[in-house]
Amino acid sequence: MIRECLNNEEVRQSVINHITKPAQNEAFKFVNHRINDEEFRDVDSQAVVDLLFYIMFGYIMSHHVLKLDGFTNDKEVMIQTIIDLFLYGVKK
Fold first, then answer.
1. Among residues of the chain, what percentage have pLDDT more than 70?
2. 48 and 31 in contact (C-beta within 8 Å)?
3. How far is CA 52 from the centre of its chain?
4. CA distances from 39 to 31, 32, 33, 43, 74 (A)
5. Is the distance from CB of 5 to CB of 23 less than 8 angstroms?
6. What is the pLDDT of the chain when averaged over all its residues?
7. What tens digit of pLDDT does each residue of 40-81 get?
8. What separation, in Å, do the N-terminal and C-terminal C-alpha atoms of the chain show?
9. pLDDT > 90 in the chain, percent
10. Phi/psi at 73 (5° precision)
């Protein structure tokens, strides 16, 4: 799909319009809801969504395209750890 997006503008736009943008919109609503409920800090919602997508695309590229080894072979543990780091960070 990545190659198709790079080589075909119509495919790229279709992926953006039918996959990426709807997912980003839902993530944006989720983050705003959590901010309004004071479960998340009052930060720029779009920046949070962008960071989440950067993490997801990095994960996809590393593990599904480049097939690089991660810190574990257990995908559930890896995803849970990524989510934990995303939500709570590394700072004490």
1. 100
2. yes
3. 4
4. 9, 10, 9, 12, 29
5. no
6. 91
7. 999 999 999 999 999 988 988 888 888 888 888 888 998 899
8. 39
9. 61
10. -90, -10
The residues, ordered by sequence, that sit 6+ positions from 48 with a Cβ below 8 Å of its Cβ are 31, 40
The two three-digit tokens of residue 56, written as one number = 């997801």
Structure tokens belonging to residue 18: 């039918």
Pull the structure tokens for residue 45: 């919602």
The one-letter amino acid code at 15 reads: V
Q: pTM of this prediction?
A: 0.79
The residue type of 24 is Q
Residue with tokens 């998340």: 40
For residue 42, which of 27, 31, 55, 29 has the smallest C-alpha distance? Answer: 31
